[in-house]
């Protein structure tokens, strides 16, 4: 008997009630047929009717045997044992795989090299295929993979035997046997709908029903009218998604009651793009935060993993911190700190964001939970009366205490861990302060159900560590497909090709119908010999079976909706693609989609009012506006005015990047402190008169002083070993630098790290001069230390100076003092030295006088030394004037000048380049086609 030989009854003619049961391969199709049957009864004018009884074979048999147990027809003693849930069965297989990979305590690390979860899944599937298709493997065909599978299977049998545990397949076989042995309560008729894949167990069930006198029939749920078919090629997958979204928009606009379905061959890869374009097409007006919770007109039949839900992810991360406190990524902890879903995420949000920035500067990329929590508390609790985030401090303390408790408990039953995890999340204020949306509330309840369901693993796993319990929770959250609750069915449904046969709709678009994708390639189970799977007739292992299955499904599609669309992509990157050969019968309806259909969702410029404005000018600086930045503001303004505006007037900045050890900024600060301590009150004569041991002692004193001051300011002290390394480095750098200082003309240090408040064209600028030396003749040498990247004084002769610090000091900070030289001091181990400009030769090694640098300092602009300071003052004043008057254009001489720009993403340099290239390509295309003006 084949299903195609059965009589056919239309869905609308089925009476409903207990006398007729419709069996479907998926629960989704069963629900859709139940809905469609009820809608047909309502259209026929019925005011009341019996609902259609539709289910999968496993669901129906479970209900049938459970009813027989309740009425005493099946004795409890007749049950073969305990039927495992899927999570229980998977755990048993995982244990078997792990046991095989770590046969002795000394080799337990071997299991960490393998994907035990993936191998357990493959093994469970292999056993299901072997039993269903009765595959026997001769010893001559044994492979290493199959031998491993046999060991795992024997271990599973050994584990299940004492408790009489049975898998879901064994449960199905037993229930079918109950039907064969005379189980009562069978309906008079059983319909089958949507079965396209041969299955021996289903065939056995259908044969048993026929033998028991049950009448089998096929359910016809196809569309009875004429179908409008279209097939066409899109430029690529992106254009295909846009075209399908535009089609759905048009279908809903034409019929307010329409329901359409978009079936996608590679849905996981296109899901996010489809969600975005459907949002643009169907909910373009939903742009504010309040619209996030609104129910959408589209929905995906395949839910997202529960672990992908925001609040569930927060809960899993909190559990992970408590279970694995020794090593945590600072970036992940920072995202958790700034994100919602726990503690006082609303009332203390600002303080949490500020402390996250501080921790980035203080801690390395990986830290322990204890160190992170200690640094967090020290950042927040500067004194007992001022704590901007008391709940955060309390909750992180609870988090740290819980991690210690989990470690002390060692091993507990999964049920006990589930209770502790639930109480732990509650104690941390999860899932946050604000009222939850329905979808969020459902996701949180789903996580709580998984924690409670850990009790089902008590018998399988026994006592486990907190880490293993957390792994089970995390895995189940990844496996569970979460569907947000809806008040009404979605008008646009997105599904896989396998789910496209799911009841009647008004339109069906089948996407991604490319050669090599449809029909799908064979995918035999890797643990069983592929040839034996093909011989047994396993559909997934045979290309001909998959092709026949695809043809059967395609025939059902063509009768499922009044509007049918088949589409495929023309290319993927540079690769040309072809449509599936199975589309040959619909190619007479081919009508390719134009490239501009990918942009059909964009508003038309002709129909949309456009406002143009010049964004190169910001508001003027007002008298009460504090402008930060000092010399850095003038430097940014010189390189790119928009940089100065975004960074210093709007306060935009890149977050600090955590580093192992000391970052460059901290190393530079230590060097400045050491040099300041060494030179304060000293002259070059003092340096030259020092003996080598005395100089080394003074250097050591300066370095120790710098480290001591740093430790006093730091939230947490440097580790002893790191401090030793930094002391040794600083001593070498200072010794190298002082040897260069000894070669200079005689001087004495007049001031170190002095602060000056300047008024430049009404702009208040605060500057700090690293060092001011005085020569024997009273002239000044102004020095700025540089300990990092290579810095040059080349730009001092240009209208817009890239390094304006020293020109500011020379031209504006000391207008009444004679200045002999302005120099940058590169204090490093390699290529240390001075660079800059001097009034005369011989003052500093490597620094040339003005007259020797005429190629850079043109005589018409810089005729003599006093003119240098005058010209600098003019140009700096012009930069200050630009800032005051809001000059904020994105202009720069060279993109390399923006290498260290903290706000470069805001400048949209790449976007501007892309627009220029697009315009150029458009003009070229017009020229080539003769359309150029």
From TrEMBL:
Q: Which InterPro entries match?
A: DNA_repair_protein_predicted, P-loop_NTPase, PDDEXK-like_dom_sf, PDDEXK_AddAB-type
- Give residue ranges for domain PD-(D/E)XK endonuclease-like: 645-904
Per the record, a Pfam family?
PDDEXK_1
- SUPFAM superfamilies linked to this entry: P-loop containing nucleoside triphosphate hydrolases
Spell out the NCBIfam families in the cross-references: probable DNA repair protein (TIGR03623)
Q: What protein does this entry describe?
A: PD-(D/E)XK endonuclease-like domain-containing protein
Q: What is the lineage of its organism?
A: Bacteria, Pseudomonadati, Pseudomonadota, Betaproteobacteria, Nitrosomonadales
